[in-house]
Amino acid sequence: MIRPASHALRERPYETAAVVLLLALALVVPGVMLLLGARAHAHALGWLSAYEPVIYLSTELGDKRDDTAQALRSEVEAWSMVESARVRAPAQALEELRAKLGAERVQQLGLSEAMMPTSVVLSPVVPLHGHIELAASVSGLEARDEVSAVDVPSADALRLMEAARSAISVAFVIAIVMALVAAILLAAFLRRVRQLESHETELLEMFGASRGALRRPTMLRGAFLGVTSGVLATTTLLVAQLALSRWATALTGVDAGATWTWFVVILPVVLSPALGVLVGRLVAQGDGSRARSKSLPGTRPALVFGRSRFAPAR
Amino acid sequence: MISCYHLNIPHPRRDGALLDDVSFELEQGSWADITGESGCGKSVLFELLSLRLLTREGTLIVGGRNLDRLPRRKLESLRRRIGACAQKPSLLEERTVLENLLLPLVARGETRRAAQQVEAVVEALELGALRNMPLEALTESERRVVAIGRACVGTPSMILIDGGVEGLDAAWKKRARSYLRKLHLEGATVVLFSREAVGPMTGRGIELRIEDGRLEPTERSLHAPAPEAIGVRR
């Protein structure tokens, strides 16, 4: 082209900005969904992975308390789902509570060793999210006389994890659909710009410009739009990632995050230019093949983008 | 430079041939006036020689390359050696004269000395006053001169002008003709397709006429000196 490839975009600032914003949006929406889903999944997973089921023995057992606790420990340790089990004495339970809540808080609540039950703490062979029947088995122990209560994860954590998994799957589907929509939108814009300079393309071909040179401006425009929208999307996703990390930590007190979510943040800046170049090439190639038309009898067209004056009107 | 053997093109609108077993040869640096009535096939021959159309019947060799066997990339490269101006030239209406003249150099990737080469054409055709005007503001004569100038920019080895310098105002005609002669003397092959011959009947000039699809050298051409420079075969 006589003028640089970017000139056509500068001549249409509003259309160009709209295309960049829509492309970026197409990358950001599924990206944010993936980040949210991944973080919720990571939190649920982290919580369930750290979870140890506890069986609290009745305080009414009196002197039999220690023997009963040992018997129960031996029983549950024999379960294939349990790696180990330990008896937690009331003093130890109070100490763990102090470590978790702080000595001052425990004192404020008026808790003492005498009020603490003897309990059996289980370490699962695999984290609970992978061995949910252990939670069911432990829950069943609550029916026994010597057991006053059990502590197993609530169904909410499992539901959250399932929801997060679904959100991730949906986000992947949305990402594919939106990438297709973005590609169609980009192709329509690039084709429009190309049609406006089709006359110049035809003339350049008549004077010997190569097909590659004639396609290059459209590919460069695709790459430019892709890079710009990719940078915009990555910046937005980076902000979203940092904000989510801060809010999630503040809400749950746990800094759980999946490493692969950084890939989601970086992906637009790689994927978008590649998509831009690919769409640009397809648009330029498509225009060229459409231009090949029937010619005068006894001849065949020699031009790809342009046409002979003897060719029938397109 | 150009060798054409047994070229046959059927007439698009009626029975018979538009070009009937046409054969001729033009050497590098020659001047040829291809004349004939309107609709006789001059423009089709122009389109074939300017590599906008390819023939299905007959052999065309341009710049030592047989077009039948030429891959598309080589065709593009060969097209860069040709400066062509159609009878109704296609110009960039909203662009300036300078931008239009620059176009072939952009197509050839010769942007290094582009300004210098465009200025040479502007100077030779006295287009200085129009240089920054958009084409849509020019008269028909001025537009045609710009198109002829565009065909000459960058001194291509072959210049093809369909319609010749017909229809130009007298002053423009004189400038265009003398510039084409200058390029011819510098070694370019110049082929004009027009109703009347305008070329110099020098040793390297020839006039060919298309009549009823046949291409024949004219009487004037047959009596021109030094015919060995040009081969015309029937």
In short:
Chain A is of the alpha+beta class and 314 residues long. Chain A is built from 10 helices and 5 strands; from the N terminus they run H-H-E-H-E-H-H-E-H-E-H-H-H-H-E.
Secondary structure topology:
The complex is a heterodimer of chains A (314) and B (234).
Chain A: H1 7-10, H2 13-50, E1 54-57, H3 65-77, E2 82-88, H4 90-101, H5 103-109, E3 119-124, H6 132-140, E4 147-151, H7 155-196, H8 198-206, H9 211-252, H10 261-291, E5 299-301
Antiparallel strand pairs in A: 1-3, 1-4, 2-3
Chain B: E1 2-10, E2 17-26, E3 31-36, H1 42-49, E4 53-55, E5 59-62, E6 65-66, H2 72-79, E7 82-85, H3 97-108, H4 114-124, H5 140-152, E8 158-162, H6 170-185, E9 189-194, E10 205-211, E11 214-217, H7 219-222
Parallel strand pairs in B: 3-9, 3-10, 7-8, 8-9
Antiparallel strand pairs in B: 1-2, 1-5, 5-6, 10-11
Helix pairs in contact in B: 3-4, 3-5, 5-6
Key features?
heterodimer; A: 314 residues; alpha+beta; 10 helices; B: 234 residues; alpha/beta; 7 helices; 11 strands; disordered C terminus
Class from secondary-structure proportions of chain B: alpha/beta
Number of helices of chain B: 7
Approximately what portion of the residues of chain B adopt beta-strand conformation? 25-35%
Portion in beta strands of chain A:
5-15%
What features would you describe in this structure?
The complex is a heterodimer of chains A (314) and B (234). Chain A starts with 6 loop residues before the first helix and ends in a 13-residue tail after the last strand. Chain A has a four-stranded antiparallel β-sheet. The longest helix of chain A is centred in the middle third of the chain and has 42 residues, at 155-196. Chain A is 66% helix and 8% strand. Chain A is rod-shaped. By secondary structure, chain A is an alpha+beta fold. Chain B has 234 residues and is an alpha/beta fold. In chain B, a hairpin with a 6-residue loop joins strand 1 and strand 2 (17-26). In chain B, helix 5 packs parallel to helix 6 (170-185). The model of chain B is unreliable at 226-234 (pLDDT under 50). The interface between A and B is large, with 29 and 42 residues. Strand 5 (299-301) of chain A pairs antiparallel with strand 4 (53-55) of chain B, so a sheet runs across the interface.
